[in-house]
Amino acid sequence: MTEAWIDAMQILASTLRLATPLIFCAMAGMFSERAGVVDIGLEGKLLMGAFAAAAVASLTGSPWAGLGAAIFASVALALVHGFACITHRGDHIVSGVAINILASGLTVVIGIALFTMGGQTPPLDRAERFRPITLPFADQVADIPVLGPLYAELLSGHNILVYAALAAVPLASIVLFATSFGLRLRAAGEAPEAVDSAGYSVTWLRYRAVIITGVLCGIAGAYLSTAHGGGFVREMSAGKGYIALAALIFGKWRPVPTLFACLLFGVLESSAARLSGVSLPVVGQIPIEVILIAPYVLTVILLAGFFGRAIPPRALGVPYVKER
Amino acid sequence: MTEPSTAGAVHPDPAIELIGISKRFGQVQANDDVSLSVRAGAVHGIIGENGAGKSTLVSILSGHYQADSGTIRLFGEEVKLASSADAIRLGIGMVHQHFMLVPNFTVIENLMLMTAKAPFLTASRKEVLSRLAEIGEKYGLTVDPQRVVETLPVGLQQRVEIIKALLAGGRILILDEPTGVLTPDETDRLFESLAVLKARGVTILLITHKLREIMAVTDDVSVMRRGRMVAGRRTADTDRQELAELMVGRTVTMVTNETARPAGPPVLTASGLSLTDAAGVARLSDVSFTLHAGEIVGVAGVAGNGQSELLNILAGLDVPTAGQFTVAGRTVSAAAPADPRAMRRLGVAHVPEDRRREGLVLPFAMSENSVLGYLDEARGRRPWLLETRRMRARCQSLMDRFDVRPANPRLAASGFSGGNQQKLVIAREHGAGPAVLLVGQPTRGVDIGAIEFIHRELLALRDAGCAILLVSVELDEILALSDRVIGMNGGRIVGTLAAAEADRRRVGLLMAGIGGTAEIAAGAQELSA
Fold it and tell me: A173, A176, A180, A208: which to substitute to probe chain B, counting the most B Cβ within 10 Å?
């Protein structure tokens, strides 16, 4: 019993770690899309952030400098997207895909130029990464039945960015639903003409939204390469940006349901590691390939809208033009 | 912010003074040296046809557009209106034709959109609620702040817009075509509210193309034509005929359906037509009626009450989910659907509600537009080729016959005015010699001269034995042309009235969903109570 409970806590803890970049990216996408800007470029910003963080952490020795660089690089890409979609009323999907392609190429090219390691960054040592934090008394309470492992295994022992991801959800809720900025941001995604006629700039609101998106994607990127991993590897984002977008849509653009959607993907991924090689009753041994593709299959199913139609913000993807 | 002046203490300077306002969009001079003076505390009407420049003028006044040249004074002080925010700060509230509301926000959220200053909403919410109570007390305008806007009836949504405009400071209230989406009853209530606002010292600028409204509520009226201000009158010193002539720039005589005619044999019979959309909402429920040869049946209703769906089904564009209709011996139902081509072969012609999207291909030449839907008929000896010369000749004759100007078949449809576009669409459908003509909004966005012409043609077609189903949101048009009037509400037919018994009040009650003779009497009593 105790063994199983500790196991369960460990799976959940690993779920949390795997869901962290998804949570950041999904919250990032929420700001952008709630303001009316489609963001299929989460993936590119995530990848760019991961690269910038690892590269700068490796060059300076500080993960915090890496984090700053990740945010800077990701915001820069977000502003490119904003410039194309908001200022020049370009197609949001085309711009987003362009950003993904750009990030995919640029990270490798700059990586080779800087480190000549085939697009990777050098492995980061302990000081250059965000380290797990052991919460107070974790070791002492670990032996208390039930609650002990819950605290010691699940809540304690993550790096600071995991906690930040969890804090990002209520924070996003507050900003979107309890502030006048959030009210106008959501209105810009629903009925931008109403915002304009109320005397507020739709353009400026949408720019602020994509900047927030950039910041959050940057943090997600830094997490991938300097907290969860120990360096940058080509294409290390591996579709997480798209999965986050799926989670956002599955969560109907709401913070808490989106969090749970991200955790669902996290569970699939973390159980993959556990399930490989294990023989289950009835089905027998599941091929590792099946387990590994599960999150992607789920993404396709969710995006195809099999689970109830999610109603997106009304002005999503529609450039705002004062009518003539 | 200055408090609105109370009745009696009217500001000596004009509330609004525009001097030499000009605004150009590309080739179009929307406003040309327009000057206007609006007395403080008055209800001032601006009337003009579609495209006369009224909306541009008020958009300049609400800060949405900036004038190329000219001066604006409010209560004697020269002001610059560089943005909506400027106009709001100066106390100009605007009620737009298409509501500037977020449909899935609550009323209070919509109001806070404009007023919220503090970073968090809790403080703003309290402030808006107290101002809302104030406005309710002072002007008698109340609305449940917690309701989601899209669940409110249109009349109440408009009230939210008015309250929003008053929250802005409320010295000057501009209403742009406010009655287009309202039932006659809602219109009356709007005008009552305007009277209260006026009594409390609010200056009101009312933009409309409906003469009736100008005569009913305004103190002064200005007439615009082709971007220019052509006349200003005290409403008491003018009449509808004079205003109509000022709007158009020549004498107009509106035709009406005077001659009651015996209806011919039935040509189209609909029974139990229903349509449920993809979201499961019933758009049309159990609609049954018969259309006879040589009669015009008008379908009256506020936009969005099932008239469009009815037209689409009869034209073969939509398939009814239940029910059927029979025309020329062919029965159409969900089991035996028909497409628009089949319907045209059966002699059912269709003038769609949205001519720019459904009636024409705007970048195409008029000659090409004149054969849309009738390509088979236009084919000659070589059916795989378009016979351009024949198409042009045919289009030329249609244009001459229907007075389409400029009468050049080579020009793209987009270069023609709304009235001339519509005349070509009607000419095309007319030319097919239909047994049944479905007409949606024949005169929307069409100038008075063209309206006159179109009405005359529709009546002539009826006299020639064609059965016409006329859908229009313009009640005056329905009343002027129809032999019978069907009132629709919420996708149902509420009642049918013969021309003789159809007046604004009775049809208005049908549009509001109050049907049946007894119910009409009760409804009328309720209204007068």
Answer: A180
Q: Are B284 and B313 in contact (CB under 8 A)?
A: yes
Confidence at residue B8, expressed as pLDDT on a 0 to 100 scale: 47
Q: Which residues of A touch B62 (CB under 8 A)?
A: 197
Q: List the domain boundaries for chain B.
A: 16-100+170-248, 266-364+433-528
Would you call A183 and B83 a contact, using CB atoms and an 8 Å cutoff?
A: no
Nearest chain A CA: its distance from B410 CA (Å): 27
Tell me the nearest-neighbour CA distance from A34 into chain B, angstroms. Answer: 13
Say if the Cβ atoms of A180 and B104 lie within 8 Å.
no
| Contacts by A202-207, CB closer than 8 A, 24 or more apart | A202/A320, A203/A86, A203/A87, A203/A320, A205/A35, A206/A35, A206/A36, A206/A37, A206/A82, A206/A86, A206/A320, A207/A79, A207/A82, A207/A86
Cβ within 8 Å, pair A197-B110: no
Q: Per residue in B251-296, pLDDT tens?
A: 777 677 776 667 789 999 999 999 998 778 889 999 999 999 999 9
CATH code of the region B16-100+170-248: 3.40.50.300
Cα–Cα nearest to B432, from B372, B366, B521, B511? B372
The answer, yes or no, to whether residue B97 has pLDDT greater than 60, is yes
Checking if the pLDDT of B4 tops 50, the result is no
Determine the topology of domain B266-364+433-528 in CATH: Rossmann fold (3.40.50)
pLDDT digits (tens, 9 = 90+) for B393-443: 999 999 999 988 888 999 999 888 888 899 999 999 998 889 999 999 998
Q: What is the ipTM of this complex?
A: 0.88
Please determine whether the domains at B16-100+170-248 and B266-364+433-528 fall in the same fold group of CATH: yes
Residues in B touching A189 (Cβ below 8 Å): none
Amino acid at A294: A
Of residues B445, B483, B61, B117, the one with CA closest to residue B291: B483
How many other β-carbons are positioned within 10 Å of the β-carbon of residue B382?
8
What torsion, rounded to 10 degrees, do the Cα atoms A184, A185, A190, A193 define?
A: 60
Q: Among residues 152-191 of chain A, which lie with CB inside 8 Å of chain B?
A: 178-181, 183-184, 186-187, 190-191
Best interface-test mutation with B: which of A197, A208, A252 has the largest number of B CBs within 10 A? A197
Pairwise CB contact (< 8 Å): B94 & A183: no
Question: Sorting pLDDT into bands at 50, 70 and 90, what band is A42?
Answer: very high
* Contact at CB, B84 and A314, closer than 8 angstroms: no
Q: Does A204 touch chain B (CB under 8 A)?
A: no
All domains in chain A, ordered by first residue: 2-303 (1.10.3470)
| A201-252 tens-digit pLDDT | 999 999 999 999 999 999 999 999 999 988 999 999 999 999 999 999 989 9
Taking CB atoms and an 8 Å cutoff, what residues of chain A touch B89?
199
